[in-house]
TrEMBL record:
Transmembrane segment boundaries: 370-387
Keywords of this entry: FAD, Flavoprotein, Membrane, NAD, Oxidoreductase, Transit peptide, Transmembrane, Transmembrane helix
External alternative NADH-ubiquinone oxidoreductase-like C-terminal domain residues: 345-402
Claim: Transmembrane is one of the keywords in the record: yes
Membership in a protein family: Belongs to the NADH dehydrogenase family.
UniProt protein name: NADH:ubiquinone reductase (non-electrogenic)
Catalytic activity: a quinone + NADH + H(+) = a quinol + NAD(+)
Start and end residues of each stretch annotated as Disordered: 422-454
Gene Ontology MF terms in the entry: NADH dehydrogenase (quinone) (non-electrogenic) activity
Length: 454
């Protein structure tokens, strides 16, 4: 059985590892990156607490001793279910079983201005770009010529009160209190604003109301301005427009207000439901597409307990991968398939030093404060791939806890690239007409990186 897995997130990688060295199965794992990204800690990369390499694990290293798993660093362009093949950037690949584990990306709700000007945080690259811009804003604030520009540069707006927004807001608040005043003594950090906006009636809407209340209390204690029932209508790069009619002057908006599935070309639009997810049955099969399965955030599986689909969290993707691995092996043996049922092991979010919330469904328990923070750290250390990564993350956390500091506040600037000749210049060169040489780069001509357009 030739199994092609597209996507090396929590679900795709777990499935490949479960099928590793299993008789009768050949696995091809495809991802546009050559590493697995530990998404729950993106916010710590964005706030200079961790290096990107600490939460990334090379895919090929995970299969050094594998006899049946191979890796391709490619981007999927199209699925052709009728011919049982997929088309990537450079080749056509056939399959017996295709597993789509492409996950989800930021949902900007078709707002082009927000798409262009706000910062998402759904990949390591985006987290690094966010860190660069955040630090660059303070460099610019030091040189700001008037108080209005300085205030705009020192205001951070986070749209979305889920775990990502809450954890990022708490981390930025601690930086404002402990770190940034030492880096920038010229600035008054009592003027820095961190604003967390959410359209719902409470933060962490998927968690217990007690956790929502505790998280909001912790954030407000750290000086974060929490605004509920507040919807961002537009953002032009300098001013946030709210649905209520108000505006917020800021140079930075972090968008954590929603996600949408990464549906590839070739999938029938009739199979795509709310949240841009693909309909699947209880075995993660796509109806009407022979040999095509979907797991993780991209899968919309309706069950009696979860009629609107399972939560888009790592634990659901991992469990679906484990069930599918069993079913593929049962198919080879000619045995019947088993149905998937999500086992909710709980949810958690951290706000800051010694501040976190944890919900456990069975038995129904709620933890907060120091004990919840220790549970959060222990679980995340356990889930990170690689002993070396776990060690470095743990050492970074210990260092930050003792010193109240992060050591990764670096801005890497792009190298100068000479302008490419215009179409008119190219035509003149082809015709043999002399054109002036491109100028040499001036000293110090490097420019700060900007987020690529979506």
């Amino acid at each position: 059985m030739k199994v092609v897995i597209v996507g090396a997130g929590f679900g795709g990688l777990r499935l490949a590892r479960k099928l590793n060295n299993k008789e009768g199965i050949d696995v091809l794992l495809i991802d546009k990156f050559n590493y697995h990204q530990f998404q729950p800690l993106f916010y710590q990369v964005a706030t200079a607490a961790l290096d990107a390499s600490n939460i990334s694990f090379p895919l090929r290293k995970a299969f050094h001793k594998s006899r049946n798993v191979r890796i391709r660093v490619e981007e999927l362009k199209q699925v052709v279910p009728a011919e049982k093949k997929i088309i990537t950037e450079s080749e056509v690949i056939t399959y017996d079983v295709l597993v789509l584990a492409l996950g989800a990306d930021t949902n900007f709700f078709n707002n082009q201005n927000v798409t262009t000007n706000a910062f998402p945080m759904k990949s390591t690259v985006e987290a690094i770009q966010l860190r660069h811009r955040f630090i660059q804003n303070f460099e610019d604030a030091v040189r700001a010529s008037n108080p209005e520009d300085r205030q705009r540069l020192m205001t951070v707006v986070i749209a979305g009160g889920g775990p990502t927004g809450v954890e990022l807001a708490g981390a930025l608040a601690e930086m404002r209190h402990y770190t940034l005043p030492c880096d920038y003594p010229e600035l008054d950090f009592k003027q820095m604003k961190i604003m967390l906006l959410d359209g719902g009636e409470r933060l962490l809407g998927a968690m217990d109301p007690k956790s929502s209340a505790d998280a909001q209390r912790y954030l407000e204690k750290l000086g974060v301005e929490v605004h509920l029932n507040t919807i961002v209508k537009d953002y032009d790069g300098r001013n946030v427009s709210l649905a209520s009619g108000g505006t917020i002057a800021t140079e930075m908006v972090v968008w954590a207000a929603g996600i949408r599935g990464n549906v590839p070309e070739g999938i029938d639009k009739a199979l795509v439901v709310r949240g841009n997810r693909i309909t699947v049955d209880r075995q993660n099969r796509v109806p009407g597409l022979e040999g095509v399965y979907v797991i993780g955030d991209l899968a919309a599986m309706s069950t009696p307990r979860y009629p609107n689909g399972h939560p888009q969290v790592a634990s659901a993707a991992i469990q679906q991968a484990e069930t599918l691995s069993k079913n593929l092996r049962r198919m080879i043996k000619g045995e019947g398939l088993i149905e998937y049922e999500y086992k909710d092991k709980g949810s958690m979010a951290t706000v800051g030093r010694n501040l976190a919330v944890v919900d456990v469904p069975k038995p129904r328990l709620h933890f907060r404060g120091l004990i919840a923070w220790l549970i959060w750290m222990g679980l995340h250390l356990f889930l990170i791939l690689g002993v070396k990564n776990r060690l470095f993350v743990f050492l970074n956390w210990v260092y930050s806890y003792i010193t109240y500091d992060q050591s990764l506040r670096l801005i890497f600037k792009e190298f100068y690239r000479p302008k490419q000749p215009t179409d008119a210049t190219k035509q003149a060169q082809i015709a043999g007409v002399a054109t002036p040489a491109l100028p040499d780069p001036p000293d110090g001509s490097e420019t700060a990186p900007t987020r690529p357009q979506s």
